Amino acid sequence: MGQWVNEEWRWNFDWRRDPFGREENLLAELSNMLDTIRGNNMKNKWIWVLNSTNVFTLKSLYVNLSAAPRRILRGSCTCLAPQKVQIFSWKSILGRLPTRSNLSRRGALSVGVTSDCVWCPGIQEAEDHLFCRWN
Ligand SMILES: [Zn+2]
C-alpha cells in the first residue's frame, strides 16, 4: 500500500494487471489527489464523539441511543414520499426485500427454483441487481 520514506508517505499500489486506456488517466488523477494529502506518522487513536470529553461513557451511549428513534421519526415526518414508499426504500437499503437471493438464504424458495434473476440467468436476484445494475 505504501511506506514512510524520510518522514513522507509514498503510495505504492500493487495492481493485479497494468492499468490501460481510461484507467491510466484515472490513476494519474488519483495519484495527484493523493499527493495533496499530507499525513503524519503519529499513532492513530479512537475518539468518542458522542460527548464533549471524547471519552466513552455508558451514559453518553444510552442518551444518544435513546434519542435515535426520535431523530429517525423526525426525519421520516419531513419526507414527502408515502409511508409505504419509505418503508420499501428502507427495506431495500437494508437488503431485506423478498428477493430470490434473500428467500434462498432463508430457505424459503421452492425446490428447483434458483436465486437467479428471472431475466438474467446466472445473476443473483438481489436489490443491487434489481434497482442499480439491471441490464
Ligand atoms: Zn436481471
Please list the strands of the largest sheet in the order they lie side by side.
1-2
Number of helices: 5
Residue windows where pLDDT falls under 50 for at least 5 positions: none
CA radius of gyration: 24 Å
Fraction of residues in β-strands: 5-15%
Largest sheet features: 2 strands, antiparallel
Mean pLDDT value: 84
Q: What small ligands are held by the chains?
A: zinc ion
What's the arrangement of secondary structure elements?
Elements: E1 2-5, E2 8-11, H1 22-35, H2 58-77, H3 83-94, H4 100-105, H5 127-131
Antiparallel strand pairs: 1-2
The structure holds zinc ion.
Describe the structure.
It is a single chain. The protein has 135 residues and is mainly alpha-helical. Among the domains are: 2-35, no CATH class; 83-135, no CATH class. It is built from 5 helices and 2 strands; from the N terminus they run ββααααα. A two-stranded antiparallel ribbon has the order 1-2. The two termini are 34 Å apart. The relative contact order is 0.06. The model has no long low-confidence stretch (mean pLDDT 84).
Produce a short descriptive summary.
This protein is mostly helical and about 140 residues long. It has helices at about 20-35, 60-75, 85-95, 100-105, 125-130; strands at about 1-5, 10. Zinc ion (ZN) binds near residues 119 and 129.
